[in-house]
Amino acid sequence: MDKWDKRFMELAETVAGWSSCFQENRHVGAVIVRDKRILTTGYNGAPSGIESCVERGVCLRRLKNIPSGTMQEVCYAVHAEQNAIIQAAKLGISVEGATMYVTHQPCVICTRMIINSGIKKVVFKNGYPDAFALELFNKSSVELVRYKEENN
């Protein structure tokens, strides 16, 4: 990993701090870049105009005892990767050939969106319990790389 990977991963971690999910849940940040330029960012949180779980006072997934890595659709939050891709679409920014830096391995839903969006590389830091997402990455042309900090 080079200094740019470190910079963009640090930015993804900063963006993750903007999450509107409960503190004990994953706070995920994503940054889409091309040619060392930031295209968009995203974090996990409720859609625009919808109360977050923090505002509601309860996490829907915890209330229903849904295990991590399953039934991603049962959640008020939009994932960070989805928000970054949606923001690009909303602003008319192509992500074709771009790299996504994300704090956690994408789930299967995000993986499908990443593949179809034209993103060519995903650099992630933390694991996520979704083996099918890994299988899809392996079958696609998207390069999946685990970020490892170098000891300086």
Description:
With 152 residues, the protein is α/β, with parallel strands linked by helices. Helix content is 35%, strand content 19%. A five-stranded mixed β-sheet has the order 2-1-3-4-5, sandwiched between helices. The longest helix has 14 residues. It starts with a helix and ends in a 6-residue tail after the last strand. The model has no long low-confidence stretch (mean pLDDT 94).
* Secondary structure: helix percent: 25-40%
- Apparent shape: globular
Described by strand count, sense and barrel closure, the largest sheet is:
5 strands, mixed
Low-confidence spans: pLDDT under 50, at least 5 residues?
none
Mean pLDDT: 94
Strand content: 15-25%
Number of strands: 5
Q: Compute the gyration radius: what is it? A: 15 Å
Helix and strand succession?
HEEHHHEHEHE
Structural class label: alpha/beta
Strand order of the largest sheet: 2-1-3-4-5
Continuous helix count: 6
